[in-house]
Amino acid sequence: MKTETNLSFEVESGDTTKFDDDGRAKRTGNVKTATAHIITAVIGSGVLSLAWALAQLGWIAGMVALLIFSLITMFTSSLLANSYRSPDPINGRRNYTYKEAVKNNLGGIKYKFCGVAQYSNLVGITIGYTITSAISMAAIRRSHCFHHHGHDAGCHVSNNPYMIIFGVMQMILSQIPNFHDLAGLSYIAAIMSFTYAFIGIGLSVAQIAEGKGGKTSVTGVTAGVDVTTSQKVWNSLQAIGNIAFAYSYSNVLIEIQDTLKSSPPENGEMKKATTVAVSITSVFYLLCGSLGYAAFGKDAPGNFLTGFGFFEPYWLVDIANICIVVHLVGAYQVFCQPTYQLVEDWLRHRYPENDFIVKERPILIPFIGIYNVNVFRMIWRTSYVIFTSVIAMIFPVFNSVLGLIGAASFWPLTVYFPVEMHISQAKIRSFSLPWIWLKILSGACLVITLVAAAACVQGIIVELSHYQPFKSVS
């Protein structure tokens, strides 16, 4: 409490070099850093499943779905960017989190529903990233095994040790205090995402050029031939959930926007970053999905970089999978920081005099300098990483989990709340033309979310029916 008083006093006294208008440390983010954060958040494990998604949907429905989700994400993200300040998007009061923006724009019970949707989704994504990173690390070992023993060798590897390794890395990185210190990590992660996407595209082109491409069709896998009719329906709906997951980042948009300088206006800068990042992402998604599908056809694997055709050249596949792991190390931090801050801010507000919760202890780290250690932060964040790692070991079902996370978050976080806050903020009259088409958009996306979520739950049930916990094998 004392700190807040001092900050406010310095700002009022005219010292604006270190603090923003709200008394917090001056924000230094710009379009480039926000774009890096968004790309780190968006181009994640979702890109790996797009070839499989196109194999289920076919050329027409698959490409249309990718474009539609891209346009919806770009549009609703621009609406959400206006909600960072309220009631006025330029001069209004700052909202530091997505939930706070919903509370100040909509009020009532909606912000509680938003909190449940946002933070359960953030936890789900970190679990999904733990699974994906382990699969990629295991793929490196498998590629060497195939290289030395031939593609007929089993070369099966347990994923659990790699989930533990990923968890240990996250325990260390989780001690980064907040979002404002993640820019460097996001730059590295964004570069890694481009690298493995380019490698996947290159490998797909090489396989197609060699005449080893798979059989593709306008409608995807054929019901009654490749799969049963019910499997075709369920897999198609699950594919839609995977595409929704691939564009998921709205749940951290407000937190990313809170890193931007106050001038020029944050909403304008965030819209620029969103347009650039989602446009770049869409191009990569279209290339990875279409070329991956052309390379593998109806047999496209859930993770196209660990597919049967990509064990040679094994060293290039290794580089791609290393890039995936490095990228997900950074992406995990982007998605877990809001959860960390939620718990820590709530406890600091509730127990402001408790040294265990609020006291920072300076420690000298050789070659780095002074680092402030908070005992509660260290214990809480370490416990969170252990929790997500254990859950990942229990439920390591890749495509179904990604699809369910994407489907469950798409409507409430990407569409519903941005649309409702825009209607409230812009004071759009009920049953006017803009109100009607915004409601139609929201309703259509709700239907997509429900059917895709149902398909993913069905997929998880089927996959877990013959699975034993803690015995995940690649």
Describe the protein:
The chain is mainly alpha-helical and 474 residues long. It has one domain (28-337, 377-399, 448-464): Hydantoin permease, CATH 1.10.4160.10. It is built from 15 helices and 4 strands. The protein has helices at 2-12, 31-42, 50-81, 98-105, 110-149, 160-173, 183-209, 229-246, 253-257, 266-296, 314-350, 355-358, 375-394, 398-425, 433-464; strands at 85-86, 93-94, 361-365, 369-373. The strands form 2 sheets. It has a two-stranded antiparallel sheet. Helix 5 crosses helix 6 (160-173) and helix 6 (160-173) packs antiparallel against helix 13 (375-394). The longest helix has 40 residues, at 110-149. The protein is globular, with a radius of gyration of 23 Å. It starts with a helix and ends in a 10-residue tail after the last helix. Residues 1-15 have low confidence and may be disordered.
